[in-house]
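Fold this sequence, please.
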Amino acid sequence: MPRRIPRTALVRLRTPGRIPGFLKAASVCVLIAGLLSPLAQTASAAETTETAETTEAAAPKATAVTDHCGSQCSDILPPGQNGNATLAQILLHQAFGSRPAHASDQLGPYAKLATGYQTLTNATLTDFFNDASFGVPADQVASTVRPAGRSDVTIVRDKKTGVPHITGTTRYGTEFGAGWAAAEDRLWLMDVFRHVGRGQLTSFAGGAASNQGLEQEFWRHAPYTEADLQAQIDSAAAKSGARGRQALADVDAYVAGINAYIDASDSGRYFPGEYVLTGHKDSITNAGTIEHFKPTDLVALASVIGALFGSGGGGEVNNAISLLAAQEKYGVAEGTEVWESFRMRNDPEAVVTLHDKSFPYGGRPADPQGAALPDAGSVTTEPLVYDRTGSAATSAAGATSTAAAKSAMSSARRGMSNALVVSGEHTASGHPVAVFGPQTGYFAPQLLMLQELQGPGISARGASFAGLSMYVELGRGQDYSWSATTSGQDIIDTYAVELCRDDYHYLYRGTCTAMEKVEQKNAWKPTVADGTPAGSYTMRVWRTKYGPVSHRATVDGKRVAYTTLRSSFMHEADSIIGFQMLNDPDHLKGPAAFQEAVQHINYTFNWFYVDSEHTAYYNSGDNPVRANGVDAEFPVWARPAHEWRNWDPATHTADYTPPSEHPQSVDQDYYISWNNKQAVDYTTAPWGNGSVHRGNLLDDRVKKLIAAGGVTRASLVKAMAEAGLADLRAEDVLPDLLKVVNSSPVTDSAAKAAADKLSAWVSAGSLRTETSAGSKTYAHADAIRILDAWWPLLVKAEFEPGLGSELFTAFTGNLPVDESPSASHGPTGSHAGSAFQYGWWSYVDKDLRAVLGESVQGPLARTYCGGGSLSACRDTLISTLKEAAGRTAAQVYPGDDVCAAGNQWCADAIVQRALGGITHPTISWQNRPTYQQVVEFTSHR
């Protein structure tokens, strides 16, 4: 086996990338030769490259690192490490389909697991995952550089994936190298997302509808001024002592590395070509500017990531609307019970991550106090966009704003991510095994990037969000690994502030107080990259001491503004301390230290840990301590008696539940998480944590592995992979549906044919998988088409007659009816992989079991299908089944900008959404983490 090169050694000269051997058109040759920037950077004063012969004597020695994984740590992150492309590379790609080195080389192994998992062994894991050991074997080094000619840091990239392995002899040099590597791999993406976080994307990248939607959704969530961003840095550094000071120094070094790369790539003309295509740089004269990064840009980036994955809660106004609809339908008492049964705050049949442990939080108070429910029909959404001109004034632009507002204010955030962790007691080796990672959508380049960091006080390899990679955020240390899933507990509350004087003054503790107006003005014009006609608008948010205004209404006839108060608001930078601790080998030496580290992360995540001996879990987030009697499900009056305990609007702080009250565990027999409920009595903000959840797909399979014993890395990956191909509705609800349908002989030939196809699919495993690798045709395609068409029809027919149209519609506002793989959902849109997170599967399951006379724990307050009559319910299901079976593939899968109408496989398929000039092949659907680790440590320090 090739020896691993010492962490202090440089190897050989870094050489420019090669272009294809021929060009198909002379005009392209002329264009590239005369107008475009170089294909790849060359050595300059900004970057020193050295040969192996000169390295051993010249390089300062770093501390040796022992890797305790024993070549049993693997990971994968499609599409590839290299997310930058020069203008020449972009045009070559568009003309001939070529891609820069390492732009797409992890996509193939990632994709083929969908058809290759069944025969997986530990020995063949490397066909689907990359070696995640520390260091690079000597014969696998592709390049070694000293960024900006520094003597205290080297960046080694491997031949297979191009991942940067950054080694520093000083802390500053290590972080400088991390910043340089991040910019080298993701500069354009980092620039895009700092502008998203600042609400300036359209001015930067163009006025396309998707750009408008992104900046509106995220800026509504975190409308910060430059002073706000800087204040968050100052606060995080000041309150964390030596670690805070170190974090600030790390950020400064990291930003310096980013800016050094910007300067080098600008002068060398190998910066990302998107800067030319969007009008920021001139391809001939090189005129124009790539703006340097500032520490406040990192806070803006963090606010985007926090909004996407780490901010549970919200939706209280929608909850109030559906509660009022239920009370109008059934009366106050019964309507409230109906509402509670659909809410499923603490469903006894819900899959949980922690077994037999109760952690009460967010439950229903016995005597609710301070509720501020709106008067019927009085709620309006607070406008965000004003002063529209040009293309911003079209009806399409208005629809984009409406959709962005709806997504921003829903509690049904797309958390995604999963984890499977098994203790050594149940594994073949006696060491714990973990398969885990975040589902962050699919982008080109990817939001995450891989790296290894080795330096004073830092020793880790894994993934970080681009622009926030001063530390590894999800990955492994010398003898441990960690990962996270979105948890979703409620850290966002809605307050009703009573208005005084006008619409922009409110009562704060008895004093009429002016709201604070925060604005962002954006304008755009057509570019080569985005031909959207010129337009402009102003985004305007009114902030109060209880957060930004989200809605207007009346409560008991009084004019109010509803505001959203989030515990991480104005504290986006605080979590940096937890990530610093996770990277620190001197701190993290076991489960207790791991739990202590993630306690410093104020976003809502489930954290998982594994080493050679132990497993552990902790649920992070600043959970506010609410006033007695306050029900977090609904808006409450903004009055001292109902505020968060010790709420201080000057510092945006309150009392938070102590660590001991957060769900946590060490060495449980196994853990699973797929954004399901954490523990008994621990209420999560999103609806749908009931008897059927996608967490069951993991839990059922891991239970079987535990019962059999001898769990291996391969067997755990197989369990994850199969769950990632399963149709949750088909596996856990379709048997109930067919039981009702077949409760009497089916005499209608069309219905019987459809039911038989569905039964055969269930018997075959309920998977959405190709007939063979690359066939682009599903096995049991007709059954899949029928269920995709049937589900929304049957849900409506089953529940709307009993609930009534108004209440049924209100409940669908709380919880979408369906989330099939072809559905469009959240900021990532369709073709995003993640599916079956939100839907009415538990409602259908419980209702049908009640109709069948089976035992149901935590039943719905009423029986709905057929009014509780089995024969009437059967008639409803057969009628809708016949209708669904008659729908053509083109009707079920209507087509989009990627797929032709009727193409079932393509409708589900995963697309790496282009955020730059390089695109990638579409791959078959899998419901699995974007970045994924497979780990089993063999020893411990």
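DSSP finds 27 helices and 31 strands in the chain. The longest helix spans residues 241-268.
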